[in-house]
Write a structure and sequence with these properties.
Blueprint (H helix, E strand, L loop, with lengths): L1 H12 L12 E6 L13 H18 L2 H7 L2 E12 L8 E11 L4 E9 L2 E14 L5 E2 L1 H8 L10 H23 L1 H5 L13
Antiparallel strand pairs: 1-3, 2-5, 3-4, 4-5, 5-6
Helix pairs in contact: 1-2
């Protein structure tokens, strides 16, 4: 609900000049609250994703992203998230979310996000986002869209983390497709008790 409310408010105020450029880091302060904790008394893994999403929304608002992309009829959808939990975030720990667009190509926009406090890194994430037409729902080229927004600006070199994410996703898709094909007979015969499936005790 917070995301919807914040986005609607942003749409109404998007005529306000953004405070940072499209390629700047946007920093948002947070604190780990009791409702963010799990049984281990540190921030629950799912909550990290929540704060990552909140921070991407803030990035959109504080840079020309919202004005330019939404104004041209585009929206961005997450295709992949790779997150590393480097150090636990404990109750009431202050941290800031750092978000930036690291690069883009014909298929994806690459987002880099960190949770830090001073020189401590708690979490590092690399996001691939696909650009989609709001009207048609069809994929669009980020490279072409950025050329309209930032004429003559070339994408920054693709970070190693994003390059390795591309390789990871390719390997994942190949492996999971093979697994799905091998298990397809289970769906074809739902009443069949497959010996590979764990029996109830």
């Amino acid at each position: 609900m917070w995301f919807i409310f914040r986005f609607i408010v942003a749409l109404h105020i998007q005529k306000i000049k953004p405070t940072q450029s499209l390629l700047d880091w946007v920093l948002v302060p947070y604190r780990c609250m009791p409702w963010d904790l799990d049984a281990n008394m540190h921030m629950n893994n799912v909550k990290y994703l929540k704060y990552l999403e909140r921070s991407r929304v803030e990035h959109m608002i504080h840079t020309p992203w919202l004005q330019e992309m939404h104004g041209r009829g585009y929206k961005a959808l997450i295709a992949n998230t790779e997150i590393s939990y480097v150090k636990e975030i404990k109750p009431f720990q202050r941290f800031k979310a750092e978000t930036r667009i690291s690069s883009w190509d014909e298929k994806y926009i690459y987002i880099e996000q960190l949770f830090t406090h001073r020189d401590t890194v708690f979490t590092a994430a690399v996001i691939r986002m696909a650009m989609v037409s709001i009207k048609s729902g069809q994929r669009a080229s980020p490279a072409r869209a950025f050329e309209d927004i930032l004429p003559g600006v070339m994408p920054p070199p693709l970070p190693d983390s994003a390059r390795h994410l591309n390789l990871l996703v390719q390997a994942q898709r190949s492996e999971t497709q093979a697994i799905a094909a091998a298990h397809a007979d289970v769906d074809a015969a739902p009443n069949h008790k497959d010996s590979r499936m764990q029996k109830k005790t």
